[in-house]
Amino acid sequence: DHVRQIASQYLARVSETLQASGKRLQVEPAALEALVEEGYNMAFGARFLKRVIDERVKVPISVRWHDGDHFIVRMEGAEVKVECGSVGLVADSQTAMVCGAVNLLNG
Question: What is the pTM of this model?
Answer without folding.
Answer: 0.76
